[in-house]
Amino acid sequence: MLCVLLAAWAAYANPGVESEHFEEDLVIRPLKDGRIGTRFSFTTTLEDVSPRNPESLDGDDDSQHYTLFPLTLGQILREYAITELHLSLNAGKWNYDTWGMPDEPGVATGGELWAWIADGASTSVDQRWQGLRNALAGLFCASLGAMDEQRTTSPSRTFRPEGSLPDWGHPHHLRHAFLPSEHVCTENLTPFYKLLPCKSFSGIATLLNPHRLFDADWHGMSIHVLWKEGVGIQVRLTFQAVLDPIRNSWNKKRDWSLKSLFGRRIEQSCPISSASQIRVSIPEDQPHLFTPQPSGVDGSYAVFNVSGGEWLFTDVEMRWHNETSFQNRFTDPRTATGKQNSVSALSVQRTLKSVNKYRGSLNVAVTNNRGDDIQTTYLETIPWFVQLFLHTLRIECNGTRRGDLLDDTTYTPPIPHSRPTLYQSTLTVPAGSTVYMTMDVTKAFLRYTEHPPDAQRGWDLPPAVFVPIKAGQKGSDELERIYTPILLVDLATPDFSMPYNVIIMSSTLITFIFGSVFNLLTRKFIVTKVEGNHKTDETGQLESASAGGKD
Amino acid sequence: MSEDADDERIFFQSRKVRWSILAAYWAVILLALPLWWTTTSIQRLSLPTSRVEDLAQNDLRFPVHIVLDSSSGVDTKALSVKLQSLINARLSPDVRAWLDVHVHADPVPRVDAYVVKFDASSQDTKVQGRNLILAGGGSSPSKLANLLIDLLTPRYTAADEQKIAKYSPRYRLAFSLLNENAALGKSAIGWDLNGTLSRYFIPTLQSLQLLHNFTIESQVQFHAPLAFDPTQITHLGDNAHGLTHEDLTVFVNSAEWSLSSSASNDPVLHFVLFIPSISHRPLYLLDSERNPVKSSAFILPQWGGIVVHNFPSDVTSHLHMTSDYLESIFSAFGLQLFSLLGVPELPKGIISLDSTPLSRWQMDSLLRQRSLENVVSTTETLHSIIKLVDQIENMPVKEDVKGDIQNALDSLEMAYKSSDSAKPALEYSARALTLSSRAFFNPGMLALLYFPPEHTYAIYAPLFAPVSLPLIAPVVREFLAWRKAKREKQKVE
């Protein structure tokens, strides 16, 4: 019945939505450690439309009419004239060594927001950045408003525009902020659904089952808005999750199906998606079996079309042939033997060591797992309360000091209580070796009101970002980013009942001093003769005096 | 006694020195009191209370001039006197407080004067611009007076009045095409909104541009489930579904329909075209006897309008709605917009010759009505602020609040002065309303609203209680000693 309708609709060839397109895509990758990497991607394209020119912000905006494009997001983009926007909210630590590069590069733990905003309006870029943060915070129920100027930087070497920037005669500026303590949860996913044309009712989005996604070993959502010259404005909503079929399997097998991974099947297709497919990465060496048969093969991916086919399937299943139980042969990549096993070209470890609440040192170890030298940009955006001492920077490789490996450094020092540190440089990692960098840091003593409600927990430091520069491809649009895990720094925290203690202590002291002095000044001292001393008093001069109050 | 006298001889033990030490301490404390008072008190600027209280007497009055056209040979002199007294008698006292009707037998040099013409050849009573053309050469003065009153003052029923959205100089009109479930098929996958708006809706909006500016936005949703199951009914022998009156009150499923938008503070009027899923078709609105009613449109007061649309049976696939198809739906939206904005209907049997959807008579009456509403609600808001500030002593009143209140009062006075013509009166009254509500909702006024006195005691008590004891005790002691000394002196004498 439904297929007939779909065929009829296909013949109808939706004449009205020709300027808006919606495509959905699910990529499933079996990972080396037996887990399953999944990436949902929902792309809406608004054709032949350009972002709002900030110069027009003072006047009235055009009417906004959307069929597939999310209106609530469109309003925010136009209200603040945002050219390009990337927001990601993730939970967990992406394991580059075993999982490889993610399909969506933005895997920083916590929240990350960056936007390219053009100048030229009567309101400054920073004002619009603030408005954008607050509007997105409201839209996604996330505390993005906390990404204030204390966390905002402009690392334009690391975060290049992914689309094109229109030339309005005013420069575009980058605003970027990490919010490592933010966590993605159901309340963020519900607004995410609402931006999709088919919400979670039909099409691939049916599989977005919060019970399974938030149970995953790693999960995160992101929103990307960009403008491509000649194409239009593109909104891409993605959800990535790393699921573990072995954990939920009674016989330790890594066979999976959509039903077993997500607890749901695709019951109906999204009527307005122009392309809707599931792509499964085909393992190179091991025998496997797909049910049903894929409708096509695209490179190393088996493609299953969710709509438009002769039949509508509801589930995809993959079985590993002749495998009774999965043996994780993937050893720790950081041990000497495991190094070659790492899927990623670079392995990064970053730690903060501190002896006390005042000093510490930041240690970064970057390992090159490839046979040739790798050049990479290195970005640190650390809030002002952890201050780097650049002169103490030591770089060692193979036991010798190698200052020459670091090049092209830009450094914006922090301003206490307002601006974070921005440190960018280019690092060369020799083939097959590890570069160790250490830098001394001091930790600030915060004002009483600057502490968060759970001050004893410590402060999350944003991740460092490495962007390997491919030889001869400097300035390429497709940049792979490697985020290090976030760090937790323990700052000196006061006793928060302190103000009252101080009031009471100092009041008591003042009262004591005041009382004694005042008493001395106003008390009457009298001389009394002690009767019992008459015998010794024959000289007539010896008197014992005692001071006492007199009523 | 003698001992005391001995002590007094040592200078630092003398009563005078002790007293002066005590007095010095007390002097310091008393002198410091004003400083303490000013540094800890909340800034509460005095509000123009008397001006706000005077507002009650200073009412808005709209003069209205009606000229009777004498060219058709009617005795306008006699009629004008008759009409004037009839209208004065029939206008209710609270309307007469703001509407000043003058009937003239001779032309007056005013552009906004209404002209009543008598046309013997005409069959219908018509309005054109500010003219009223009476059919058949005129009717009885009593009927004419009633007609004029109806044209000059909008008659709202209580239900109508509830629907009217609060005045705002700018509204956002959000058009939403909601498919209950498009995946089941035969749904609306798009609409030619731009074409439809420019053909059927923009003229309506343009006729209202004296009162409001509009921002238009639209979206299409393919899955907009209802929060309840429609009632199963049988209509003309077929199975159908119906929405009872109770269903309509919970029709909007705000959890699943993302209709709210966050980008601006202008009030939004929603216009929703709801396409039921094929499993709920046809979907009718039901009356109290559970029979389907003819209309498929309903208004949610002050929120917007909804049209439930069932596709004709010849639709076999998804449909892209053209502007021809949408005409009837958008004319329903147009009528809903008029009711939401309080546009009065022309009295029965009167035809408008104007090309605009709104005649000049309706427009003037609406302008007067809206200005009056604004003035009334500004006055109420200002009274509330004064009362609130009076009642809550912890409420700070800063410069911006005071400025807003003063500007609102100034705008109100300008509105009174310019009530001669309705348009500036509306503008000033709208400005006054905006300013007064901004003053009312000023976040600065909330700062210390809930600062409990216990906190004050908790901070002051540890210092002031122990310090005050040694300060008061010697005073009492010295006073008692002085009285004792005085008595003994008297005894001796």
Automatic annotation (TrEMBL), chain A:
Source domain of life: Eukaryota
Name of the featured protein: Gpi16 subunit, GPI transamidase component
Species of the source: Thelephora ganbajun
TrEMBL record, chain B:
Superkingdom of the organism of origin: Eukaryota
Name the UniProt record assigns to this protein: Uncharacterized protein
Lineage, opening ranks: Eukaryota, Fungi, Dikarya, Basidiomycota, Agaricomycotina
Organism: Thelephora ganbajun (Ganba fungus)
